[in-house]
Amino acid sequence: MDTVTAYSKERELAGIWVDILNDSRAGQGGSSSAVPNSAAKVNSAAVDRRVQIDGLRTIAMIGVLYVHFCNPNPALEHVRVSLFFVVSGFLITHILTRAHASGSSINVLNFYIRRSLRLFPALLLALSLAAIINMQDIRDSILWHMTQLSNVYFALHKTWEPWVAAHLWSLNTVEQFYLLCPIAIFFLGRSAVTVFFIAVMVGSILLRVHAYDLGFDGWVSILFAYDPIAAGAILALLKDHREIQAVLRHPANIALSLLIIFSPLAFGSDFGETESYRLLIIYALVSIVSGAYVGFGGIARLLLDNGVVRLFSRISYGVYVYHFFVWWIVAGYFPTLYEKNWTTFFTMSALTIVVATLSWLFIEKHFDRMKHRFPVQKRFVEPACP
Predict the structure, then answer these.
(1) Fewer CB in a 10 Å sphere around the end CB: N or C, the chain?
(2) 270, exposed or middle or buried, with CB in 10 Å at 0-12, 13-18, 19+?
(3) In the 8-state DSSP scheme, what is residue 383?
(4) How far is the C-alpha of 233 from the C-alpha of 231, rounded, in Å?
């Protein structure tokens, strides 16, 4: 390859990443304030998300790849899933409550269509390809996965097979919550919505803790994992409550939250598996998300608000959906990659990121751009007096 051709190829590759970065900036709005501050002014352009919250989602994604490709039994196992759940619950409730409070006419059906346009292209592509080549005999259970009921399938059959779809349980949990969330927000009063989310949170905890007393087994835990999502939703409802947010965003509370999150490193990995720890990190992660919503300063800002985060926030969903399917295909040719270690982590993470990038550029982005045809809110304009 001559120098001119090589240079052209480099420019083409760079252009792909710039395209993704520009897409990820669209809708981000203004920058966050330097320090968490309950009185900070919310930039009206940043309606749907905050850059630092995307940073938290990127950290959760990295945690998933680390656990699945490198260390199957980390001390902080529950942090990655709980972080993903809290962020998801916060973001969807924040978006819906802003729409509801705007005085606009709300189209619930369009909300579901928009979610489908964002989530289904990558998911259905991955599952269709898996079914065509029958990865891990996935055809026997393909309808469960296609209809977002993987968690129900695994709980009923008491197995993680087919393992190529095992990671979909958490995605299904979030999507099942999303089915009820807009109905609750749009058709219940503010106080009733808060009570609803509290009931979901407390009910999930009680059903999980007392599963054996009620005649269930441990598998039921993946059916009652809505508590961190509901906690994120409650945070979104209370994000403008000055007294509560002053406590959550206080530097001392942020420091305490970090100590809670990393406590299994001091008390042992067994503590990280306890129900007590799972409940404690919900509070800790709610505090972290609250701070990220306004914006951290210092090292946290550098970690959560940078070009790499904006880049990966756009493809993080694809990375999550594709990573097991990509692993099955690649490790079929290179079986040593089934061994969980740092080599597998870096190799499979890189390959999954490439697949997710191509998926976004050539498939997902085009469906995502169709969402403007299905507005969730339409402002009512009062006709002029004759």
Answers:
(1) C
(2) exposed
(3) P
(4) 5
26, pLDDT greater than 60: no
pLDDT in tens, 127-165: 999 999 999 999 999 999 999 999 999 999 999 999 999
Task: Give the pLDDT confidence of 66-86 residue by residue, as tens digits.
Answer: 999 998 888 888 899 999 999
Please count the other Cβ atoms lying within 10 Å of the Cβ belonging to residue 116: 16
Distance CA 67, CA 29 (A): 33
Once rounded to an integer, what is the mean pLDDT over residues 34-50? 41
In the beta sheet, which residues pair with residue 85?
A: none
Residue written as token pair 């079914």: 131
| Residue 268 CB-density burial (10 A; 0-12 exposed, 13-18 middle, 19+ buried) | exposed
Distances (CA, A) of 367 to 89, 121, 200, 349: 23, 7, 32, 25
In angstroms, the CA 169 to CA 85 distance is 12
286 C-beta neighbours (distance < 10 Å), count = 22
Full-model pTM: 0.84
How far is residue 345's CA from residue 319's CA, in Å, rounded to a whole number?
A: 13
E strand or H helix that includes residue 104:
strand 104-106
Q: What is the pLDDT of residue 378?
A: 66
Q: CA 127 to CA 129: how far, in whole Å?
A: 5
Q: DSSP characters for 172-198?
A: HHHHHHHHHHHHHHHHS-HHHHHHHHH
Query: What would the pLDDT profile of 296-339 be if each residue is shown by its tens digit?
Result: 989 999 899 888 887 888 899 999 999 999 999 999 999 999 99
Pure H helices in the chain:
3-25, 51-69, 77-101, 108-133, 142-146, 150-157, 168-187, 190-209, 227-237, 242-248, 251-261, 264-267, 269-272, 275-294, 298-304, 307-333, 342-359, 365-368
* DSSP secondary structure of 25-56: HTTT-SPPPSS--TTPPPPTT--S--HHHHHH
Domain boundaries, the chain: 47-376
Q: Which of 265, 257, 309, 310 is nearest to 285 (CA)?
A: 257
